[in-house]
Amino acid sequence: MQHLIWNIDPIFIEFGFLKIRWYGLMFAIAFALSFMTMQWMYKREGKNIEELDTLLWYMAVATIVGARLGHTLLYDPAYYLSHPLKILAIWEGGLASHGATVGIIFALYLYGRRSGDSFIWLLDRVSIPTALAGACIRIGNFFNSEILGIPTDSAFGVVFARVDELPRHPVQLYEAASYLLIYLISIQLYKKTSDKPLKGLVFGCFISMLFSARFVLEYFKTEQAMYDNGLMLNTGQLLSIPFVLVGLGFIVWSLRNYQAKAVR
Predict the structure, then answer these.
(1) Cα separation of 15 and 157, whole Å?
(2) For 182-226, what is each residue's pLDDT tens digit?
(3) What is the pTM assigned to this prediction?
C-alpha cells in the first residue's frame, strides 16, 4: 500500500540568522484568527474592541507559559526539575494543551478582575477561538513531524520520513479536524444562547468536547510522557478526565440556573 511520505522542512523561510518555522507561523495564525473571532463577538455585543489588545496579551503569555510548564512538569518532570534552566528553552519544543488551558483560565480570572468583565462571560467567549487556535497549532505539529501517531497499515497512514519509515496515524490532523468541528459547534451554540441567561454553557460544552476528543485520540498517539504511570490510561488521558468532568459540571450548573430563573 502506498502511503504519503511527509518530509517537509520545518523551517518555512529564513533570512540569514532569522528562521521562521511552520510551527511558529501556525502559532501566529492561531492568535490572528482568535483575535478576529473575538472582534466579531465584541462587535456583535457592542463591546469596546480596543479592550481586546490587552486581553490578547494576557492570552498569549498565559498560553505559552501554561503550555510550557504543563509539558515540563507533567510530561517529563524528572529531567526538567534536574535541569530547571531548560524550562526556559521553549525553542527546543514542548508545549502541553492541558497546561495551556489552566494558564488561560487563570489569566482570564486576572483579566476579569482588572477589566470588570464577568469571569464566566469571558470563559464562554474566549473558549470559542481557543478551539480554532488549537486546530492551527496541531497543523504546526504536523509540519514539525511531532506528536506522532502509532503505526498503522490503513490508507490514512503517513510516513514521517524525518522520524522513521513506518506509516503512522496522522493524529495531529485528526486532532486539528476535531478542534475545528468543536469551534464550529461552539460558534452556533454561542449564537443561540448569547442573549439568554445560560452563563457557562458554551465553556462547559467546549471543554468537555475538547478533552473528550483528546481522550479518544490518545489511543492513536505514541506516549508523550517520559515515564510509565503503570496504568491502562496514558498521561494525556488521565489529565483529560478532570477537564471533561469540569465541563460537564458547568453544563449542569448552567442549565439548572436557567431553569430556576425560568420558574421565577
Answers:
(1) 34
(2) 999 999 999 999 888 899 999 999 999 999 999 999 999 998 766
(3) 0.90
The residues of the chain scoring below 70 in pLDDT are 1, 91-93, 225-229, 262-264
Q: What is the 3-state secondary structure (H, E, C) of the chain?
A: CCCEEECCCCEEEEECCEEEEHHHHHHHHHHHHHHHHHHHHHHHCCCCCCHHHHHHHHHHHHHHHHHHHHHHHHHCHHHHHHCHHHHHCHHHCCCCHHHHHHHHHHHHHHHHHHHCCCHHHHHHHHHHHHHHHHHHHHHHHHHCCCCCECECCCCCCEEECCCCCCEECCHHHHHHHHHHHHHHHHHHHHHHHCCCCCCCHHHHHHHHHHHHHHHHHHHHECCCCCCCCCCCCCHHHHHHHHHHHHHHHHHHHHHHHHHHHHHC
- Spatial neighbors of 114 by CB under 8 A, at least 6 apart, are 54
